[in-house]
Each structure stands twice: as structure tokens, then as C-alpha cells.
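Lecture 7 notes: from sequence to structure.
We start with the chain below.
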Amino acid sequence: MFSVFQAIALGIVQGLTEFLPVSSSGHLILVPWLLKWQEDPGLAFDVVLHLGTLLALVVFYWREWLEMAMSLVNGDRVRRRLLLLLIVASIPGAIIGVLLEKQAETIFRSPVLIAITLATLGLILWAADAFGSKKRRIDDLTFVDAIVIGFSQALAIIPGVSRSGATITTARFLGIERADAANFSFLMATPIIAGAGLHEAHKAFNAGVTPQLGWGFGASAVFGLIAIVWLLNYVRTNTYRPFAIYRIMLAAVVVAVALARA
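Predicted C-alpha cells for the same chain:
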């Protein structure tokens, strides 16, 4: 059985990288691979980590979700429209996630493939953040915009792409300013993570509750909340460029290690 230390470490990794545009799924594969951890935490642990980041989202955005829910009865057209945009944006990811679930658990887990996707999406993020008009806000999003961003979220089933990275990048290409791009990305993540996590939650319970699951869940929730708060404050006055550079540098390290171990 993997240790409590490893559980906490992976919980911290999941919490931070789920919301920073650097790929949580990629890091959860690469960190044990780089450190040569032999123990496989298992699917139950992965589910618990995602439920931890779901808790972080709910804690941070509970007021927004409550207002969107109330808009169905109080006539708030702005919040109702945002709710519909999020529903539309969630559909592509849900469909593609179901269709490619098996591939995500097998052929998409190669460290070299993850390195390629990390670097490629890093360069695209860099370009999206640097060029074009970036004055639009969430209220300016159209339903076509939501569908396009939703399809980009679906690409996150490939480790190394990053759900937040893909959706923030697409939103930036569509002219959404930095903080609103992150906010829409995080709001989009809530139903996707909830659906995937709750769909697999029975496996975590069937596996039995262990200290590792508890520590992983707690670390994921706490550091996920820290990541949300920090990123939203950071991008108000800074660019996404450091995350693009980090992705490219990590990809280079992975390739170098893979070649050394070959």
C-alpha cells in the first residue's frame, strides 16, 4: 500500500494542478513515474482526489451556483443565461469522456505522449494569451463560444492537455479577459468533475476507507482552494506565460528522463 506521505503529496499535486493550467492528470502520472514510486494508488484514490477538488470548487463558487439556481424562479436573466451557457459547454466533455474513457486509462498514459501534449498546449496557451483582443467578459459569451470552449474541455481526457489549460486557452483566443477566462473555466469544471467523480464514487467506497484516502482528499481540497484563489488574483495583473514556460520545461525533463532510462 502506498504511504500517507505519498497520498498527501499526490493530493497537493491534484489540488494545485487541477486549477493551474498545467494538467492534473499528467502530473498524477508523471510524479510517481519520475520518483519511481512502485505502488499504484488505484482508481478509488483518483476518484477521492477529484472529489477533493470538487469540494474546493463548491466552497469557492457556492454563491454563484446558488444565484444561478435561484435565477430559474426569480427572473434574473443574466444568471439564468450563464447557467445555460455552462450546461451547453458541459455537453461535449461529458459525451467524449464517456466515449474515450477506456483509451484515457490505457494508451493516453505514456510519459512521452504527456510530454508532447504538455509542450504543445503550453505553446498554444502562450500564443492565445499574447495575441488578439482580450476585452470580452463572461457576459459577452455566446452559445457558440460555450460549445467551442466545451469541445476544448473534452480534449482534457488526454493527460497533459489540462482541463483548465484547454478552456482558458480557448477563452483567451475568443477574446475573454484573463480573470473571466479562469472563472468560466472553473465554473465549467464543477459539473464535469461532479459527474465523473460521483459516477465512480461507489468504487472508492467499495475499496474501503483508508487513512490514505482521507489525507489525499483533504490535501486535494485545501490546495485546490488555494490554487483557485491564488490564480484569480494572479491573472488580474499578470499573464499566463509562466505556466506555458513551466509546461515546456517539464516536457523537456520528462523526455530527458525517458531517454536516460531507455
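Points to note: The chain has eleven helices and no strands. Residues 43-74 form the longest helix (32 residues).
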